[in-house]
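Methods — Computational structure assignment.
A single polypeptide chain was analysed. Its primary sequence is given first, followed by the predicted tertiary structure written as structure tokens.
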Amino acid sequence: MISDNRKHRNCGYTMFANHKLIAFETIVIKEVRRFSRIWLQTLVPPAIMITLYFVIFGNLVGRRIGEMGGFQYMEFIVPGLIMMSVIQNSYSNVVSSFFSHKFQRSIEELLVSPVPNYVILTGFIAGGMARGLAVGAIVTITAMFFTDLSIQYPWITIAVILLTSIVFSLAGFINAVFANSFDDISIIPTFVLTPLIYLGGVFYSSQLLPPFWQFVSGLNPIFYMVNTFRYGILGSSDVNVYWAFLILGVFIGVLYSSCIWLLRRGTGIRS
């Protein structure tokens, strides 16, 4: 009798785990299909934009600048441009997708279903990571036409780009939760995210800045992400790599907890 009860209990746990896995896969597949179906709008423009950066900043401006941080200027900006594309696309995919679900009220059906909130959140985050990493791969391939790209520390490179993609996918989710219109989802990327990216050491070394602006750069989390990624590719960084990973871990923990809390409360979702 006890053995039968255990079998039924184990069977129930297995079925529930399978339901969660199916729900996660469904959300991820839907997210990937959403941005891959309109690849001319989601995947091609970043590659064109980055190519222009390489031509203008790398070739034309870079020839006059010479070296930056001990490397040719083209080599120096490649890691920052790859990271910039991953950040922007991870963020924009989640914020636009989740807000669309909220606007159409289809997210309410997910919230009242037996699918746990963390499965819903993880599915959207995985979709944002898929687009961010896909664009990052395209930009990396594009960069190979302009410079020789060799990775010094592969595991650090992979780890930091994955963690950064998670951070900004979570940030995009929070933006979508509080957004009340399609205009609201463009405010943060335009007035907060873009300035932080350009002030994050993508195009310059912080060693060239006066002490005050070096301190200001140290308050920018993207500065640590870009420099750690640059360390993984070039072997050179303006920051402590271990400190950068700690910051990434803290951001992920805080943002993930905030997203789960907002989902449970139904903030900005349930009317």
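Note: The beta strands are 67-68, 71-72.
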